[in-house]
Amino acid sequence: MNDLNHLLREDARQPIADNGFSARVMTALPARAVAKRKWLTPALVFGSAALGSVLALALAPAGTSLMQGFADLVQLHPGTPAAITALGMAVALMISAIVFAVETE
Amino acid sequence: MPPPAAPSDVDLILAVLERDDRRAFEQLVDRHQSQVRTVLRRLTRGDMALSDDLAQETFVLAWRNLSRFRFEAKFSTWLYRIAFNAWRSEARKKREVLLDIDPDEAPPPGSDIAVEMPDVASRIDLERAMATLSDGERAALAACYYADLSHEEAAAALGVPLGTVKTHILRAKAKLKVRLTGKETA
To answer: Does A22 sit within 8 Å of B30, measured CB to CB?
Structure first.
């Protein structure tokens, strides 16, 4: 005697011959971008931010210091060269931090 | 020297993810195509063309979304989930798929007893009998017997409560017995 459970399991085990199915699937696969390395985007953004900061400091007028820039910002004088340099660096670092946070989600 | 062991599903998935290895994915398709197509054939009431289209869609979706596979469940379980969703989407285009229990339907008589079948019940008879089941009953049977999922996994894959899966299984088996033997259970 054959019970229903056995009949169902037997039916499930019957193999279906491939008959070109796998080949059809492989033909239908879309091109797939190679998975980006996870560290690449944050590294690029952080590198760009660091480079921008160095350039900002190097190209700032003589006598400009970062501390002076932050002091100008605190005193609500954002138009001074030192304040603009400090602001640029802060924004660049903030963008880097956001990218890091999103990428590590 | 013994032949090298076949790579596991996890090895193949990692090869696809890390090296975009299409040969590795082809091995996964080759390994799982029979079971996925069997499940879909039962879900589509034996419509081979439709079930093969859905199986192809299942593997293409798996390829596209492989990076979302979390390695917590078996790859086959994840594939079946995609296959069930593909079947439901296709069926919804034509009509509403009812995976819930029909409250007006009486509980199947004798559904809690072991069901014995005569030897003459063939697979063709079974296929025909399964085609008469409701969508929910067929899906539950396909999940638990053909995809070999536990009741809990089937409930998750089908998006219905655990109790619904169990009820569908009991009703489906009772109906199958009647269809295959022509006898009502006492």
So the answer is: yes
